[in-house]
Amino acid sequence: MTDSKYFTTTKKGEIFELKAELNSDKKEKKKEAVKKVIASMTVGKDVSALFPDVVNCMQTDNLELKKLVYLYLMNYAKSQPDMAIMAVNTFVKDCEDLNPLIRALAVRTMGCIRVDKITEYLCEPLRKCLKDEDPYVRKTAAVCVAKLHDINAQLVEDQGFLDTLKDLISDSNPMVVANAVAALSEIAESHPNSNLLDLNPQTINKLLTALNECTEWGQIFILDCLASYLPRDDRESQSICERVTPRLSHANSAVVLSAVKVLMKFMEMLPKDLDYYGTLLKKLAPPLVTLLSAEPELQYVALRNINLIVQKRPEILKHEMKVFFVKYNDPIYVKLEKLDIMIRLASQANIAQVLAELKEYATEVDVDFVRKAVRAIGRCAIKVEQSAERCVSTLLDLIQTKVNYVVQEAIVVIKDIFRKYPNKYESVIATLCENLDSLDEPEARAAMIWIVGEYAERIDNADELLESFLEGFHDESTQVQLQLLTAIVKLFLKKPTETQELVQQVLSLATQDSDNPDLRDRGYIYWRLLSTDPVAAKEVVLAEKPLISEETDLIEPTLLEELICHIGTLASVYHKPPSAFVEGSRGVQHKRLPPRAGSGESTESPDVGQSGPSEAPPAVIPSQGDLLGDLLNLDLAPPTATVPSVQPSMQMGAMDLLGGGLDSLMGAGLGAAPAAMPASLGGAPAVGGGLGDLFDLGGGVGMPTGSYVAPKTVWLLAMKAKGLEISGTFARRGGIIQMDLSLTNKAMSVMTDFAIQFNRNSFGLAPAGPLQVLTPLSPNQTIDVSLPLSTSGPVMKMEPLNNLQVIYPPTK
Amino acid sequence: MIGGLFIYNHKGEVLISRVYRDDIGRNAVDAFRVNVIHARQQVRSPVTNIARTSFFHVKRSNIWLAAVTKQNVNAAMVFEFLYKMCDVMTAYFGKISEENIKNNFVLIYELLDEILDFGYPQNSETGALKTFITQQGIKSQHHTKEEQSQITSQVTGQIGWRREGIKYRRNELFLDVLESVNLLMSPQGQVLSAHVSGRVVMKSYLSGMPECKFGMNDKIVIDKQGKGGTTDDSGKSELGGSGKQSIAIDDCTFHQCVRLSKFDSERSISFIPPDGEYELMRYRTTKDIILPFRVIPLVREVGRTKLEVKVVIKSNFKPSLLAQKIEVRIPTPLNTSGVQVICMKGKAKYKASENAIVWKIKRMAGMKESQISAEIELLPTNDKKKWARPPISMNFEVPFAPSGLKVRYLKVFEPKLNYSDHDVIKWVRYIGRSGIYETRC
């Protein structure tokens, strides 16, 4: 009989039977029974009732049986803390065993049992094991300190285990060093400010020595730890790089990626005119390419990282385009990532090859992949001017295939091509119009409408085309509605005589029949513009649009810097900072690249670490991710007042504090709202101060105290919040952002226990202290509070960007 | 670090579940089953984030291995670990299948306890593991104190991959240079991309702790020696390589036994090998590759219901050498109703289930040519979408290294035992296989 029999489910009296078997005198029978218990545990059955019987089997000479019992203990001790104490004696005894394997096993298992009473007993054996003569025991004990810290951090500190752990970094055995480094790194992560790892040139030297000798996993721990060190000068940085480069030839991809991380980071400190800098750049390319011959899952991780590396240092892989060509049987996730990198690497030198490839891909089966390939062709056209014509004709070919999603995708990118090369490829419009009926996706419809509006004077039946869209106006998505509104206004300004009726119709649809504030506001602006001064309207609406620039989808520079510091990790796979997906205090610190110690680079601003990469960031279509950086640096004219727009769909108590407004400011470059809003705001120069000042971090401390503070506006109506009305504004006093609130109790009863919570927002705003409302708020009383804010909270981009949600639970 | 490790069968039933961290609960097991294994769509990524928990998975035949975490772990390390886990299991009980996993679940738990501590991978070399995870179970009465400390020092030591005291009556080693040549060619015969990924696999049956040095016709080494004027005569052409020219290696990676810092500074490959079979190095070349076969396709669409296909293959290597296991796979449209094939050599068959004509030739000498022609009848369809024309792919095996790599020497030194380099019997073999060898048509 084989062990698989334990997985077969049996009848009802199973637990009872097992109990009997566990207490049997026969060793074999006992062992069989424990195996059955573990199998049941694995498939999710609750066998915790057998706790005392299983623990009774612990005292045994049979190592296999002992390990099984330990496994059981680790699973159930937490639910049976009192009985778990029964096991302590055996553990303590095992920690004294002659056999190092058993000593290690005991200390390893004990650390996994998260019961306070057991933890107390763990300290003495652990202290002994940390100083054990056998390296196997020491390396296990090192990890056990991290386990214990996870259960009871205070205890670890009080017992002085951290110092012992630090001493292990100088251990003679490389594996002990590696595990000590891993444990210390983990503990240090939960104490962001403690100088626990205390890396200095001496310890670094020890780590680099151990790096040559330890297992592949140990090398990863050490390299990841090294990456958090900040060398003192470029010479130290170079010498570390020199000792890390051999790792690039390791068979383990994780070792390679971690080495790449260290090099990418420390390279920042090397002067660019140094010979070694160039050598290092050259050395980085081959191992990155080699990662692509690993198993597909690792290829995926590598490609996500290469995507970052290519954005940070395009020169490394610029000659390696071919290796990113998609293979027919690559898994889809590898294909999509390769495509992304191909576009980033596309240049005049290789564009012919790239286009030929993309054309092949556009005929494949997977819909997502084909779409992305079509989009990539458009992006090539925008990026490499010489290829634009060929790209357009390729896109036309693809439109001829009449495959629905290909056509739609092609139209979306052709719109962008028009934005980049106006008045050049209008001959294709006729072909596009033929496919009008097949468009069913909002993005494609919006793009088509934009094209019709933009080139209305050259399309004879533009009014008919737009009118046909108008019929189902209410069923369209906002994107399409906005675009249709703008397009018809454009058409009207170009051909005023025939289209008066049409424009009336769309303006009334937008302003009277729509719930959408964006649409309504835009409608009103057009309406007023047209009715007060048609000439000005023409200047505004038909103004020449700024050209879009080549790179899209770039990661915002500060985030990119942070992600480079996380090469190889999940953050680099998600392209998100760890704080976005890790709970608790762990990993919330933002990592930064070291400031560039540049000789011969006078052009660089000294605050590179703060404001982005040293190379001037390319202008980007502010489509999605890049507004944040701008907002923090630019002194924009702010909206005149923070417009409250409490949407009816909002949950009670959650409000849209700064809603509206800012997106129109940014509208200048948005494809969706060309030229409409900004001009209107430009006409009425706003009062300085307000939001722009609030976030003008550079000029922080010296701000005069009497700076402009917008008047309080009502944020939350009493009827929506069980009688609590809140009005407020933001102010900046002494360099601190404050939220001034007036709370009014409009209910019948007294309110107490106020608390406030900020949802994640674009600026990382969070309360710097608790909300201090001293008195209970009696009916009809109003009090003013000022809540200091900090910008150290979790950042998440909001739509619109200045949307700030505050949960304000009035608990009575 | 890794918070937990689960193994599922194809139905999503848990076979192994080991949790290392407190932040991973039992519900994680179900979350993965529901969101990935039972997902309606095909999996779009090997990393899945479900409710702030990240799942890494790999699949081996019907078995899913998933590692779970809530932290910002080293993702590359997690996948490397999962592969390693598969290697270790295979080394212990052969193929990874549901049956084998159920039969060895106690062993797997024991291994998981050993090679992953609190989610940190520990020594996972099978050579070392097998010395103390034996499933014999009885508490080490057999081990003396010295033996125990020998085990622990090996597991934690600098040479974790080899134990001391190995003895062979006959010292022997086998070197296999295994290359897979990859090609993507345009219909016009232009090479779009070509590369060779090669492996040097060594089987060593050597006594003691032998110090080895491996040499090949690496361009950098040969050029350096040429310049320096001190040629290493003793090593040259010792192992059958005529060494007529050197090759440019784009990149190489080594087994962890190789001293990387020495390779970095002197480009010499020195190591103490593990016992038995292992992969010494992997390399990649892209320059001057010998493409063993050239495929010349000709596809003609005759009306809407007929395709004519003609494919010529040419062998491009020394006439004295023989290629084997040649297979050409010509894809056919989904609406194929019938196929007539004529080929000069070998056998060709239309396989409807695979949507392809498969043409097999047992052997073919160098500098030869062969041809196949086929008529494909199509059912008329009103499917607007064009047939994607997948590329024609090819498989073969040739007895040389398409990259041109030659082994120059493998020297063995064991100062403590009385055998010398000359006493070691050495064998070298070159095998070139097709990787993804495709020609678009």
Give a short overview.
The complex is a heterodimer of chains A (812) and B (441). Chain A has 812 residues and is mainly α.
Counting helices, strands and paired strands, the structural category of chain B is alpha+beta
How would you characterize the largest beta sheet of chain B?
Answer: 9 strands, mixed
Instruction: State the end-to-end CA separation of chain B.
Output: 48 Å
Largest interface: A-B, 116 and 107 residues
| Spatial shape of chain B | flat
Topology, number of strands of chain A: 8
- Nearest-integer average pLDDT of chain A: 79
SS elements, strand count of chain B: 23
Structural class of chain A: mainly alpha
Q: Which outline of chain A best applies? A: globular
Ranges of chain B where pLDDT stays below 50 over 5 or more residues in a row are 137-141, 229-243
User: Residue ranges of chain A: pLDDT <50 for 5 or more in a row?
Assistant: 598-707
Please tally the helical runs of chain A, counting DSSP H or I stretches of 4 or more residues.
37
Number of helices of chain B: 8
Rg for CA atoms of chain A: 33 Å
Strands of the widest sheet of chain A, in order across it, are 2-3-4-7-6
- First-residue to last-residue Cα separation of chain A: 67 Å
Hey, roughly how much beta strand do the residues of chain A contain?
5-15%
Helix content of chain A: 40-55%
Rg for CA atoms of chain B: 26 Å
* Largest beta sheet: strand ordering of chain B: 11-13-9-8-23-21-16-19-18
